[in-house]
Amino acid sequence: MQQHKKFECLILFVEIAQQLSFSKAAKTLSISKGYLSDQIKKLEKELKCPLLVRTTRSVRLTPEGEKILEQGKKIKATMLDLERNINQQHNTLTGTIRITAPKLFTERFLIDICYDFKQLYPEINFVIDSSYSNCDLNQDDFDLAFRATLHPPQNMLAKELFSYQHCLCASPQYLAEHGAPQRIEDLSLHHCLSALEPQYWPLKSANMAIQGWLTINDHHLLKQQALAGKGIIRVAQYYVDRELEKGTLQRVLEDEYIHGQSIYLLRPQLIYPSAKLKAFISFVQATLTN
Questions:
Q1: How many domains is the chain built from?
Q2: Alpha carbon of residue 181 to chain centroid
Q3: What pTM was estimated for this model as a whole?
Q4: Does the pLDDT value for residue 89 go beyond 60?
Q5: Which of 71, 115, 205, 237 has its CA 20 to 30 A from that of 54?
Q6: What is the CATH number for 127?
């Protein structure tokens, strides 16, 4: 076990040992009970001795656990002194926030959110990886991740921001010229522009094979083609919400939309997240959930 992980596990153990409850300790530390239990097992394996006796109703310390607790409290006190010395830096809203997020979410929301946050806190800067790569925040150099999923990773703290569907839409110009499809079978008569291959769209009635003159792996360019009256597209509804509200794009076959995913904000299970991260997370939630 790496040295920094030993320190983390030791601090977690001290909290459990003082409260004699996994549930209370997990709540105090704002981490999951499962994650807490896993870390204590790793510490016991590393030390090659049991530290806690667990029953369905109680937790008590072994003799080895009593000794580790006394040493752990001293180490915790030292770490708290160290924390006080760097407290000003940690709790100042300055520095860089590193984020990984999907391209559509970045274009539609994240850039504006970061810019608005910087107007409030001018000493904050952002580095954004706009991609669909699933980075491991415990290993990679990112503070936060935004991900579209139904099942956020269990080893992360996950906050659901909003849910969404994919919609089919086209410009009024295109629909006036070609007519609006009334059934999914009508899509075979239309230019259905796709972002991915194979070229089929998952709809409520069936997975519908489509055809069109363009397949392109850039949703921004795909949306521009739809706005220009060159076909029907299927895209996350949040990405075209402003165009739908203005009427420059219109939904078709709305009864065929299937249940979508949710956008989650993910961060590692840090015991003491920095002030800039806490402030930014609160800002994101206030922006996207109102």
A1: 3
A2: 35
A3: 0.67
A4: no
A5: 71
A6: 3.40.190.10
